[in-house]
Amino acid sequence: MQTIGERLEEARKRKGISIREAAEHTKIRGDYLQKFEANSFDIDLPALYIRGFVRTYARYLELDPERLVSEVDATLVRDGKPARREQREPLGRVDFGAGEARSQESGETATSSQAARDKAMLLKFGLLGGGAIVVIVVVILLINVLFSSTPAKPVAAAEPPAPTVQADPAQTLTLTAVEATRVKVVQDFDGATLYNGALVKGETKSFKKQGKLLITVEAGKNLRMEVNGRSYPVPLDGYGRFALD
């Protein structure tokens, strides 16, 4: 006479199903199914669960589940496990395998939903963070553009070179006011001011000339210039500066 395990194994092989496929369909661990087919029910589980798993596996293999469960009860009694059958309710019996399957399916569905929510949340935070970084970069660039553009300094117009009057070096310069005017005389080589003031009509000022002199006059037409008694023309009529070599 075949044992419970032999009948289970024969029915599974007749259907061409592997232990792994049977475990996936029944939601019962593969090592439990292997023990059942080895006619070993010494599993660290309450007898109630063992009977429920055997019933589910027998139904999956299209065997008589109640007959197999009765034989399992006898085996459990022989092995020292309580064989009390579960109480039947008027509306039917409890299918532990199906219940476990529904529980696992519900858990997998909840896990998948939570994973989808987590991915959506991470994507949302990623988009917000990326947008914030772009805004910060744009603001920094605008600040750099606004504060780095300094107004161009106006280019000072170059002063025209002062007209030059050639005279003998190391001579005496005499300035005479034909009409009232102001005169400033500066020694070029050391920047010393020889005279800076007003000349009234007919007033004369004399200076020892050592090299080039820079002469600024308020009204050139009101000034007469001599070097060692030799007259030199003033090269401008109005206000200006000229050099006397």
TrEMBL record:
Residues 80-113 are annotated as: Disordered. Residues 80-92 have a biased composition (Basic and acidic residues). Residues 104-113 have a biased composition (Polar residues). Keywords: Membrane, Transmembrane, Transmembrane helix. The chain crosses the membrane at residues 125-147. It holds the Pfam family HTH_25. InterPro entries: Bact_Cytoskel_RodZ, Cro/C1-type_HTH, Lambda_DNA-bd_dom_sf, RodZ-like_C. Residues 174-235 form the Cytoskeleton protein RodZ-like C-terminal domain. GO terms for molecular function: DNA binding. This is Cytoskeletal protein RodZ. The lineage of its organism: Bacteria, Pseudomonadati, Verrucomicrobiota, Opitutia, Opitutales.
